[in-house]
Amino acid sequence: MAGSNSLYEILGLSMAVNRQNNAFSGSVNNNNNHKNLELATNTTPENEVDNSSNILTSVSSLFNNPRFSDITLVVGSERFHAHKLLLATASDVFETMLTSDRWQDGNAGEITFHESEECLPVFSIVMRYIYTGKISLTMENVIPVLVLADKYNLLPLKESCAEYMASHLAESCSACTIVSWYQYAKTCDLKEFEKICCKFIVLNIGIVILSEDWVRLDKSNLMDFLRRSDMVIESEFALFNAVVSWMISAEHVEDIEENLEDIVPLIRFPWMKPQELSDLEHLDFVNKYYKYFAPHILSAYRYHAVIEEYRTKEKFRFPNSQLVCRNYTNADIKMNFNKKVSGFSNARGINYKSTFDAILCNSYADRENFFNCVINYYPKGLPFSIPVDSSAKLSLQLLQADRSPAQVSCEVSVIIYARHKDIRYVSQCIEIEHTFGGMQELAIDLLDLALLNKDSPYLFDDVFEIHLFVKRLGSS
């Protein structure tokens, strides 16, 4: 039929229309499905899966396991089947060793490590740490572990060693390791632990000088300590004897004259009593090297012989560093007061008030210049009982007894003793500058009362002990 479409054309058009309809219909259905899927996704709660412990167990099983091992580490008489991926991930030092073209053994299947005698026994536990993240630290192994952690830059392990040592400082005194710990802290760049360790040594130098570790102190570190005024020590004479022991030890005796020239000026001879200066002059060691001591001893004698008014003149002037008082605990030096309270944990309305005379100058020519201090605890220590809550603090109250209007500027230091087993040590020191005069009272918060229970490390046989130092500022 003229003008009519052929059957094939009609069928083709029909099929095309059907395809379009099907395509349109399908797109609508797909969009609905997407909407339903989005709705389902938004309404389904998350369920986080944590199989990290299983993964860690699997990795841990590879320690010293030849399975998948691609390198062997030879350390002393031991051989460790290791995995480059884990070593490089744990340490950038290992990464450089195993990947750098400059390291000849990087591509070798076996590498020999040369470790010190102290580190050989702990290398295996450090390797195990790399695979497991676990290690058992002790007083005996913490230093060699730290040395390896520093050598291979295992930063988390270094921090763990520092935390362990910081929590065992009291034990380190009896174990004669405190000086070594301090010097390794400086070597390994453990800044925070170095500060903690240094402060502990300064506050407990009286214990440290009696340990075998004392003579291992480097000269530069010894000089740094001798420059400090916050050192707690029985007397300058006791400190002098400790320095002499350091000088004549096998570690330092070869450089004794050089050490004398550098170290003797750091001894504060004016803080020795005249009798101690006389005793010092009769020591064989001092007589042998008298030229290093003579000018300092003579100046100290003059300090005790001349009143302050004349000492301030030019010809009697002393180096300021020589005249600054340390925290001397000897009762003969009338700038300190040791206060002990028995039965402290159960005490309530007991009067703990004490008084002591604080000299204004250590010179024997000015020994009559002093002022009287009154010390009391609060809230314990009052002559009556008062209610306290669990957050209350034990405070020390200090004032001038005669309430003289004359003002005296002082540095007040309070050290608090603690016990670990049979070791009595200084746990902390509080330092405050204060001007006494008239009604001006000084209150110092010491500890939370909650810490002072019967089992407290601050109580030994239920005795609470502090030492108070009152040092006039600017005395000469």
UniProtKB/TrEMBL annotation:
<dbReference type="Pfam" id="PF23651">
    <property type="entry name" value="TRAF_BTBD17"/>
</dbReference>
<dbReference type="InterPro" id="IPR000210">
    <property type="entry name" value="BTB/POZ_dom"/>
</dbReference>
<dbReference type="InterPro" id="IPR011705">
    <property type="entry name" value="BACK"/>
</dbReference>
<dbReference type="InterPro" id="IPR011333">
    <property type="entry name" value="SKP1/BTB/POZ_sf"/>
</dbReference>
<dbReference type="InterPro" id="IPR056184">
    <property type="entry name" value="TRAF_BTBD17"/>
</dbReference>
<protein>
    <submittedName>
        <fullName>BTB/POZ domain-containing protein 17 isoform X1</fullName>
    </submittedName>
</protein>
<feature type="domain" description="BTB">
    <location>
        <begin position="69"/>
        <end position="139"/>
    </location>
</feature>
<dbReference type="Pfam" id="PF00651">
    <property type="entry name" value="BTB"/>
</dbReference>
<dbReference type="InterPro" id="IPR051481">
    <property type="entry name" value="BTB-POZ/Galectin-3-binding"/>
</dbReference>
<dbReference type="Pfam" id="PF07707">
    <property type="entry name" value="BACK"/>
</dbReference>
